[in-house]
Design goal:
This protein is α+β, with helices and mostly antiparallel strands. It is built from 10 helices and 8 strands. Helices cover about 50% and strands about 15% of the residues. A 4-stranded antiparallel beta sheet has the order 5-6-7-8, with no helix packed on it. A two-stranded antiparallel sheet has the order 1-2.
């Protein structure tokens, strides 16, 4: 079974494509991705995150040549741990992968070099743009793992054994229930700003915000300053 899942702006799981095939091979993945392309059309800054199955990479390069194919940094860290049998090495590599700035990335990679030179060389040879947030040519935002897909897989763990048409009906019911629950939850919100957003505002209230113009703002924390452009939806901190 093939599943394509995204994450919306509120960090919620958004499954949007399912496929059924006899096995995972180049032809089946290319067929699934070709159908996916018909539904998505062209998207700028398109990023795929998957495991390291060779057929996925081949299919993406053929069907979505303009997209960037990356790997799950959690699985990559697990591979590093299995190879070198040291959790501190895997943890340092994971911190480097999740770094938002080149400065932070270089600092953690320096730590990794000091811990184990061979591990550093192995990680460097694994194409940093595939597992490092700061080196990804497109925007990975906060999505660094395949957790959203694993979530869907867990929901379909037993349903996968069902006949195809029954499985399709199971998926339809699952998505319908999820959509209905979201509508019910949204209808209970009695303010323009949700409790989650209010917590975020409170959390970052110690920062100083100064407007540059209608769309650009400078945000300062201690001696560090970032520039946010609301029109372009960019921030020099690279967190957003």
């Amino acid at each position: 079974m093939f599943v394509a899942t995204a994450q919306d702006g509120n960090e919620q799981v958004y499954p949007f494509a399912f496929g059924y095939g006899d096995s995972e091979n180049n032809l089946s993945w290319e067929c699934f991705l070709d159908c996916l392309k018909g539904a998505l059309s062209h998207i700028d800054d398109l990023v795929f995150i998957s495991d390291r199955h060779a057929s996925i990479e081949v299919g993406i390069s053929k069907v979505f040549p303009y997209a960037t194919h990356t790997i799950c940094c959690w699985h990559f860290a697990e591979n590093v741990n299995k190879r070198f049998h040291r959790k501190d090495i895997a943890a340092t590599m994971d911190k480097a992968a999740r770094a938002y700035t080149e400065l932070k990335y270089n600092w953690y990679m320096g730590e990794l070099r000091n811990l184990h030179k061979n591990a550093f060389d192995y990680v460097e040879a694994a194409s940093p743009y595939k597992w490092s947030r700061v080196h990804c040519p497109q925007r990975r935002y906060m999505v660094m793992t395949t957790n959203v897909t694993e979530c869907i897989n867990s929901c379909l763990k037993f349903a996968r054994q069902l006949p195809m048409l029954t499985l399709v009906e199971f998926i339809r019911n699952m998505l319908q229930r999820s959509s209905s629950n979201c509508i019910v939850h949204a209808s209970s919100v009695d303010r323009r700003i949700t409790s989650c957003d209010l917590e975020r505002v409170t959390k970052y209230s110690y920062m100083t915000v100064n407007p540059v113009d209608w769309n650009i703002f400078s945000v300062k924390r201690s001696r560090i300053q970032w520039i946010i452009d609301l029109a372009r939806k960019t921030c020099t901190c690279n967190n957003f």
